[in-house]
Design brief:
Structural class: alpha+beta
Number of domains: 1
CATH topology: Aminopeptidase
CATH architecture: 3-Layer(aba) Sandwich
Largest sheet: 7 strands, mixed
Radius of gyration: 15 Å
Number of strands: 7
Number of helices: 6
Strand order of the largest sheet: 1-2-3-4-5-7-6
Helix content: 25-40%
């Protein structure tokens, strides 16, 4: 079952993000990795900046989370994580399809360039990689991330995205 986040889920969402992010350990360069991957303070900043989290629950347990952030002419998919114990069960796809269904603008997704499994997941779900020059412009326009992360990331776009940066 998919449901929208509320404050009672805060600690569980933070826990799932950090558990799910363990897949990136050793993939993300050491200078960008930290423990925890997302602190409670950073999660609160993301929520305050407009990231709306959606949860996938199985038998009242949250198994996955995915955020959506409306940025005017585009929608960003942010912080998509599934518990380690629940990976490869279609939870990420269910969350992604749901968020696509509630978005009325083209969708952009940023991820780490070396996270090949994440890139392949989004490609299987009708997203395509944008060019390197578009990637840099998009990351600087719609995300607030350090320059080093811009260098190490890719952006995928929904089929309805038009290059009019």
């Amino acid at each position: 079952m998919i449901q929208q986040y509320n404050n009672q889920h805060f600690k569980q969402v933070c826990e799932i993000i950090n558990d799910g992010a363990s897949a990136y350990k050793g993939i993300i360069p050491a200078d960008r990795w930290h423990e925890p991957y997302m602190s409670e303070k950073e999660l609160q900043i993301q929520i305050d900046e407009g990231v709306q989290f959606w949860l996938y629950k199985e038998e009242e347990e949250i198994a996955g989370v995915m955020g959506i952030q409306y940025k005017g002419d585009v929608t960003l998919i942010r912080h998509a994580y599934v518990r380690t114990a629940n990976r490869n069960q279609g939870i990420g796809k269910k969350l992604l399809l749901y968020l696509v269904s509630i978005s009325s603008t083209p969708i952009l997704i940023g991820t780490w360039i070396d996270a090949t499994w994440a890139i392949q997941f989004y490609q299987k779900n009708n997203f395509h990689l944008v060019s390197d020059s578009d990637k840099e412009q998009l990351l600087r326009k719609y995300w607030s991330i350090p320059e080093r992360q811009v260098e190490l990331s890719v952006v995928l776009a929904s089929r309805d995205w038009r290059n009019d940066i």
